[in-house]
Amino acid sequence: MNLTPTDSRILLDGKTALVIVDMINGFLTEGVLASPRSASVLPETETLLHFFKMHHLPCVAFADCHEPDCIEFQTFPPHCIRGSSESRIAPSLEAIGGFVRIEKNSTNGFLTPEFQAFFTQHQELERIVVCGVCTDICVMQFCLTLKTYCNQQNRKLEILLPVNAVETYDAPGHDAEQMQAAALQIMAQAGIHLTSEMIYHD
């Protein structure tokens, strides 16, 4: 897949928002689903968030946050229990701030009433930049649902995905390289705009 960089200046049109997916302790540094691969995209996520905050652009950060008896635990091991440090946004991102934190009880943040309210309130948006983890689960589900929702509503929206700011985990039966490549291919075919990276200017 041949990808090219994107100039960050295109984001300064007043019609762009940032969505950060699950850059929380429970996927980065602690708990059964934490992964060094996921943590590796934290620096680029910090750069994106700093850029959006500096230019007063809207930002949303999803945080997995489950009750102890969550039905999702029939599929995934218990993780990111409400009130635990696992469900907290990464400290470096909290220190930057400038985002609306949205808790989610499933892998698909689009389904939260809070995001739907955010999206409805921001009718000016024509582009959403998405970053975070995991590429083949929460990131892909959010992007595909957002894309198909906009198609259904006949609402013009570009979903921009910097591939150096999304990652997935390695585990038995879950080969990270294979799953990452497959997810990116599926999203590209669905009309998600993949870019190799954002290029920033002084």
Provide the descriptors you would attach to this structure in a database record:
202 residues, alpha/beta, Rossmann fold, 7-stranded parallel sheet, 9 strands, globular
* End-to-end CA span: 29 Å
The overall average pLDDT, rounded, is: 96
Q: Give me the number of helical elements.
A: 7
What is the highest CATH level, the class? Alpha Beta
Using the CA coordinates, give the radius of gyration.
Answer: 16 Å
What is the CATH architecture annotation?
3-Layer(aba) Sandwich
Helix content: 25-40%
* CATH level 3 topology: Rossmann fold
Report the strand count: 9
Number of domain modules: 1
Low-confidence stretches: none
Give the helices and strands as they follow along the chain: EEHHHEHEHEHEEHEE
Major sheet attributes = 7 strands, parallel
Global outline: globular
Topology, element by element:
Blueprint: E1 6-7, E2 16-21, H1 25-28, H2 36-39, H3 42-54, E3 59-64, H4 91-96, E4 100-104, H5 113-121, E5 127-133, H6 135-153, E6 158-162, E7 166-167, H7 176-189, E8 193-195, E9 198-199
Parallel strand pairs: 1-9, 2-3, 2-5, 3-4, 5-6, 5-7, 6-8
Helix pairs in contact: 6-7
Short summary:
This protein has 202 residues and is an alpha/beta fold. Helix content is 34%, strand content 19%.
Description:
The structure is a single chain. The protein is an alpha/beta fold. The chain has one domain (6-199): Rossmann fold. Helix content is 34%, strand content 19%. The chain has 7 helices and 9 strands, in the order ββαααβαβαβαββαββ. The strands form 2 sheets. Strands 2, 3, 4, 5, 6, 7 and 8 form a 7-stranded parallel sheet that branches. It has a two-stranded parallel ribbon with strand order 1-9. The mean pLDDT is 96.
